[in-house]
TrEMBL record:
It comes from Thiohalobacter thiocyanaticus. Residues 78-195 form the YbaK/aminoacyl-tRNA synthetase-associated domain. This is YbaK/aminoacyl-tRNA synthetase-associated domain-containing protein. InterPro entries: YbaK/aa-tRNA-synt-asso_dom_sf, YbaK/aa-tRNA-synth-assoc-dom. GO terms for molecular function: aminoacyl-tRNA deacylase activity. It comes from the Bacteria. Pfam families: tRNA_edit.
């Protein structure tokens, strides 16, 4: 089944007010998403599968950041996947446009490096860019950093989680950007230029190679 986007103006289990969402093809027609629901960890929308409607969740950090920075977005659903390339294929989107976050650590703290799903991170190039040695963060550390997300479905919004964020130039040049909403079935779709203009303090560099 292809991607579907079904919206709701009600956040289950909360009393927050939300703005109506309108989906029209093309990013020029996107509206601002609903205000995050403070009492919960997730901003609920709805997805339809096998003729039934189920709540779908966007990580609260993501919803809040996009709303506060006035970044228009849409949410797509797709069958569950366990890798970024599978996600791109399942959602029928170009892998070059799907942002893959890689969490690393140096002596200054945690870093999020964003590369296209079709690329592999070049750690040596990243070391040179940062003028320091970086190592991959461990799984327990990821769970602690992204408490409102499913493991392995980290959103590509480092500033929303207080992380220093580096964006690979191959990703930065994409007109459309997709990234995990916080689970393995939902993607956020934004205009690339609008996203990177509004992301606080990001750094650009070239530290990935096509697989």
């Amino acid at each position: 089944m292809g991607c579907m986007w079904v919206t709701s103006n009600v956040c289950p289990g909360s009393r927050c007010a939300t703005a109506p969402d309108i989906y029209k093809p093309g990013l020029s027609c996107l509206t601002r998403g609903p205000t995050p629901c403070a009492p919960t960890d997730y901003n609920y929308r709805w997805k339809r599968s096998a003729g039934r409607i189920h709540p779908m969740a966007m990580a609260q950090h993501v919803s809040r950041y996009l709303t506060e920075h006035e970044i228009p977005y849409e949410v797509l659903t797709h069958p569950p996947t366990m890798s970024s390339l599978e996600t791109a294929a399942s959602a029928h989107i170009p892998g070059d446009c799907l942002a893959k976050p890689v969490i690393l650590q140096d002596d200054q703290g945690y870093i999020m490096a964003l590369i296209p799903a079709t690329h592999r991170l070049d750690l040596q190039a990243l070391d040179s860019h940062l003028h320091s040695h970086v190592e991959m963060a461990e799984e327990p550390e990821l769970a602690a950093l992204f408490e409102d997300c499913e493991l392995g479905a980290m959103p590509a919004l480092g500033p929303a989680y207080g992380l220093r964020t580096l964006v690979d130039s191959h990703l930065a040049e994409q007109p459309d950007i997709y990234f995990d909403a916080g689970d393995h079935e939902c993607l956020v779709h934004v205009d690339g230029e609008a996203l990177f203009e509004q992301m606080d303090g990001i750094e650009l560099g070239e530290f990935s190679h096509h697989m």
